[in-house]
Every structure is written in C-alpha cells, then in structure tokens.
Amino acid sequence: MSRRLFLQTAGGAAWATSALGSYAFAFEPGFRLQVTPYHVDPPGWPADLQLRAVVIADIHACEPFMPAARIRSIAELANALQPDIVFLLGDYSGGHNFVTGPVMPDQWGEALSVLKAPLGAYAVLGNHDWMHGPLPNMPADDAAGVRNALAAAHIKVLENDAVRLVKDGHPFWVAGLGDQVAGPAGRVGGVDDLPGALAKITDGAPAIMLAHEPFVFKRMPRRVALTLSGHTHGGQVNIPFVQDRVSRVFKDLVYGHIIEDQRHLIISAGLGTSHAPIRFMRPPELVEITVGSAPLGAGS
C-alpha cells in the first residue's frame, strides 16, 4: 500500500470512528426519539375492551442528556398519542456521573405533570430511584424525593399494590411491583412482593402488571394478561457481542414483545442511559400499546 493510500485509509477510518462515536455518545441518546407501537390481544381479555396505553420508562433525568425541557417534550408527545392511560416504569433518577449536573425531582416532576389521559397515570419505582439520589454520587433518601415528585405530578405510585379501573363498562386491574433489585438505604435485595400485589386483585377482571425489571416474568401467572417492564434499555448498545452478553445477564429478557406459555411481556428500551451516556442502534423510545382487538385496518 502506498503511503498516500495508507494515510487516506487511516484518515477515513479515524473520521468514521469519530463520526460513529459522536453518533453513539451524542446524537442517538440525546436527540433521537421513536414511538414503538405494539398490539397485544392476550387470552382472557374482553373482546370489546380496547385499551390504548403509552409507556414511559427509564427517564434517567440529568443535564445535558435528559433535561427537564426534553422530559416535558416527551410528555407532550405522549399526550399527542391520545392514550387512555399512561404507565411509567421507574428509574427517574440519573444513571451515571458523565453529566454537567443533576435534574432534581421537582424539576422532572413538573415536566411530567403535563401528562393527560382519561384513566390517569400510574408508576412504579426503579433500582436507581432507591440506590442513590438524583445522580449516583448523591445520597439516597429511600426514594422519598421520587415519590414526592410523582405525587405532585398527580401520578399514582403502585408498590405491591393494584387499582381497579373501568373503560367502556369493562373493569380491569393495573398492578405495580416494588423494585426487585434495591430497597431502603440502597441495599441490594429488593422490595418486591408478587404474591402481595396479586392478592390486591380481588375479582376475575384482567390485569396488567408494571414491573421495572423484567426478571419477575418467569414467575408471572397467566392471571396477568400483560407485564410491562423497562430497566434493560434494550441492551442500550445493539451490536452482537454486547447483546449476547446482555441476553445472558437478563436471561433473554432484553427487549420487545415476548410471549411464553400464553403470557405476554413488553420490555421498553426506555429513554435515558446508565453507566455511560451512549446508545447505538437502540434509540430512546416511547412505547404505544393497543391491548385488545385491533382497530379496523390495523396490523398486529
């Protein structure tokens, strides 16, 4: 290879590496946002009950990647999808220290307060909400700040609890599980109680379970029509050797619509980042779900 060709090749490789790095570290996590639609028609769901839900997961509020203004614009996009109900799946606190500053709970809470849906908004907490404050280098408060921010935004937190709702004359349940990883004082071990949450469901109406981590799906009974989770960020970096490792860690529960033994799980890629502000081929997403019979002309 001639010196000129070598320098051109090396220069091209350096440019490509720089461009790829800029995309993964800046553009995809900071600017891309997609709406990912799903249609689920689980066994036992009433044929004439159609529920439209928007799922918001893993916000990981921080400057400059997920500031309050961006969170508000995401909430406004959720409203534009005109859901019947909104589900928030935990990890509102920042997930790494590669930041210019925190976004405090009252700031991201105010941004989320614009959410509007006829049946309301319901939330669970995530491991980062328990393990530390607004950023990993800030002290934990046993998720008190997160709970207060959600309450101020009129978002109901469900921790090993369930609420019965009615749409078009049909009842259904929304249950929420305590975090499966972290608990008071940031201890590892979790505060989840699946039997306790299921015990709050007191009739035969179908149920949707909110669980920050998808691990519990392996134990989820058929009684639950649909489980919704985040936590994995869809692997965050979607290249084969990374995804193979992530699949092993999360026991093949990483991303998308998973069906096992007639049980349905949807795992969101979420919005923010943890460990490092990088995403590659797994852009931030809002999840839009139609539960029940598909509207006329819609695909599955």
TrEMBL record:
Pfam families, sorted: Metallophos
GO molecular function: metal ion binding; UDP-2,3-diacylglucosamine hydrolase activity
Keyword Hydrolase found: yes
Domain Calcineurin-like phosphoesterase: 52-233
Record-linked Gene3D superfamilies: 3.60.21.10
GO annotations of cellular component type: membrane
UniProt keyword annotations, A-Z: Hydrolase, Metal-binding
GO biological process terms on file: lipid A biosynthetic process
Recorded superkingdom: Bacteria
InterPro entries in UniProt: Calcineurin-like_PHP (IPR004843), Metallo-depent_PP-like (IPR029052), Metallophosphoesterase_sf (IPR051158)
Protein name: Metallophosphoesterase
Lineage summary: Bacteria, Pseudomonadati, Pseudomonadota, Alphaproteobacteria, Hyphomicrobiales
